[in-house]
């Protein structure tokens, strides 16, 4: 019985000894047969061990069936296994659901996900935006509300949740104080991570310790989109910027909510100034959307949620390889790459191996001679050409030619 429905579970055999990255044929057959008759696949990885080549091989099998799948990260009891869980994103099977089978943690959440995957059609909004229609889209959008003490985080969370607050209980990996609560906005479930517990601690321990608090980073890691709340009366103090950098370093989509907007007199000028400040001070991520709100007066909340959903779409954006390479040729023609040991560096080919955040790899000779300036130019040009504001963009350069070239 899973969340009120009768479900038949089929368990497949554990992994046999085999060459790394391969699956013995008998096992492959058995697994394929089980998946063919299934409505939903639960793909389990060991979060403490991290992702191993066999996981990637099995993930490809799951992809090949085209069946909806839920990625389950096991052995996440307490605070363990988190690194492995983040690695698991790379399997391309959506968000890992952290559980501990042995300790019974996270099972309630998993049951809800199973029920949702089996019972619900993809949301209309997801179909409209052309996102994948597999199990990932019916998972709640995970949003963390972060910021220094007294900027109005708790007020905002309460305003967003309104009357229908539904606390889903402590999340594995987060502290008991940091709770998650779901709200439904335009047919889409948004799971808010409220870090109210951090605040209580901050008042006792002081700011310095609070900033070092790993719970902030944990909340950021759990989220897909992070709302950085700043106080309009004291915007972008050092702590605000430190948190902003943390969000960018973790590769999350960022929205800045300028709270207490009701107290601002010259709103036009203020917004213009703040845009400039953000562009300069959070320079890693260009185009961060600023949303003026008043949590107290419940103003601007719809715009905020709209921005959150849009940022998530950008964060998940995949650019087709041909378009990417057309852009690359133009970008290099417009502004030539630097030279290394007397010869101009030429990036021959680029692909986007992953999203969340959008991550690109360029192949060239003498990659080590590339300058940070030129990489920044490419990232900014890429961001503009494909309209990807407010999300970190990763660009790596590797030695070599086009890895997919036939010759
Ligand atoms: P937190 O520490 O970030 O969770 O901040 P709180 O939500 O506890 O808010 C800190 C203070 O700011 C409280 O006195 C709130 O009433 C006040 N506050 C929060 N939002 C607003 C707002 O939009 N306008 C005004 N004027 N005050 C606000």
Give the ligands present. Answer: guanosine-5'-diphosphate
**SSE series:** HEHEHEHHEHEEEHHHEHEHEHHEEEEHE
Biggest sheet: strand arrangement: 5-6-7-4-8-9-10
Mean pLDDT: 80
Strand content: 15-25%
Number of helices: 14
Helical content stands at 25-40%
Detail the poorly predicted runs: 120-137, 164-177, 197-205, 207-212
- The global form is flat
Could you list some keywords that capture this structure?
407 residues, seven-stranded mixed beta sheet, three-stranded parallel beta sheet, 14 helices, flat, binds guanosine-5'-diphosphate
Short description:
This protein has 407 residues and is α/β, with parallel strands linked by helices. It has helices at 25-36, 53-65, 82-87, 107-119, 124-128, 153-161, 196-205, 207-212, 214-222, 238-249, 267-281, 301-315, 321-334, 372-385, and strands at 41-46, 69-74, 97-98, 141-146, 166-170, 179-185, 188-194, 225-231, 253-259, 289-292, 339-340, 343-344, 347-354, 359-364, 394-399.
Topology diagram in text:
Blueprint: H1 25-36, E1 41-46, H2 53-65, E2 69-74, H3 82-87, E3 97-98, H4 107-119, H5 124-128, E4 141-146, H6 153-161, E5 166-170, E6 179-185, E7 188-194, H7 196-205, H8 207-212, H9 214-222, E8 225-231, H10 238-249, E9 253-259, H11 267-281, E10 289-292, H12 301-315, H13 321-334, E11 339-340, E12 343-344, E13 347-354, E14 359-364, H14 372-385, E15 394-399
Parallel strand pairs: 1-2, 2-3, 4-7, 4-8, 8-9, 9-10, 14-15
Antiparallel strand pairs: 5-6, 6-7, 11-12, 13-14
Helix pairs in contact: 13-14
The structure holds guanosine-5'-diphosphate.
């Amino acid at each position: 019985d899973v969340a009120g429905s009768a479900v038949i579970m089929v368990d497949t055999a554990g992994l046999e000894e085999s060459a790394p990255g391969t699956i013995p044929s008998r096992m492959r057959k058995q697994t394929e047969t089980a998946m063919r008759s299934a409505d939903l696949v639960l793909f389990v990885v060991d979060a403490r061990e991290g992702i191993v080549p066999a996981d990637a091989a099995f993930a490809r099998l799951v992809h090949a069936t085209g069946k909806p799948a839920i990625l389950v990260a096991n052995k996440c009891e307490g605070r363990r296994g988190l690194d492995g869980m983040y690695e698991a994103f790379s399997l391309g099977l959506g968000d890992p659901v952290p559980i501990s089978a042995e300790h019974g943690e996270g099972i309630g959440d998993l049951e809800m996900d199973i029920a949702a995957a089996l019972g619900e059609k993809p949301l209309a909004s997801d179909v409209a935006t052309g996102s994948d229609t597999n199990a990932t889209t019916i998972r709640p959008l995970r949003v963390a509300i972060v910021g220094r003490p007294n900027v109005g985080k708790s007020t905002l969370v309460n305003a967003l949740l309104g009357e229908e607050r539904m606390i889903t209980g402590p999340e594995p990996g987060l502290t008991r104080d940091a709770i998650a609560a779901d709200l439904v906005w335009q047919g889409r479930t948004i799971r808010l991570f409220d870090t109210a517990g951090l605040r209580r601690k901050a008042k006792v321990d002081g700011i310095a310790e609070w900033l070092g608090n790993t719970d902030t980073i944990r909340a950021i890691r759990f989220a897909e989109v992070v709302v950085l709340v700043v106080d309009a009366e004291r915007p972008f103090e050092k702590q605000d910027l430190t948190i902003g950098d943390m969000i960018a370093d973790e590769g999350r989509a960022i929205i800045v909510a300028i709270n207490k907007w009701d107290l601002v007199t010259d709103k036009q000028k203020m917004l213009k100034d703040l845009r400039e400040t953000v562009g300069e001070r959070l320079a890693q991520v260009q185009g961060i959307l600023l949303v003026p709100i008043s949590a107290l007066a419940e103003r601007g909340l719809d715009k905020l949620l709209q921005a959150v959903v849009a940022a998530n779409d950008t964060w998940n954006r995949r650019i087709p390889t041909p378009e990417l390479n057309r852009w690359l040729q133009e970008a290099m023609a417009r502004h030539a790459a630097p030279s290394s040991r007397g010869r101009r560096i030429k990036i021959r080919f680029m692909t986007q191996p992953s999203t969340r955040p959008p991550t690109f790899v360029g192949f060239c000779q003498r990659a080590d001679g590339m300058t940070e300036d030129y990489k920044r130019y490419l990232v900014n040009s890429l961001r503009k050409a494909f309209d990807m504001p407010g999300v970190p963009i990763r660009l790596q350069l590797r030695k070599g030619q086009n890895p997919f070239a036939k010759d």
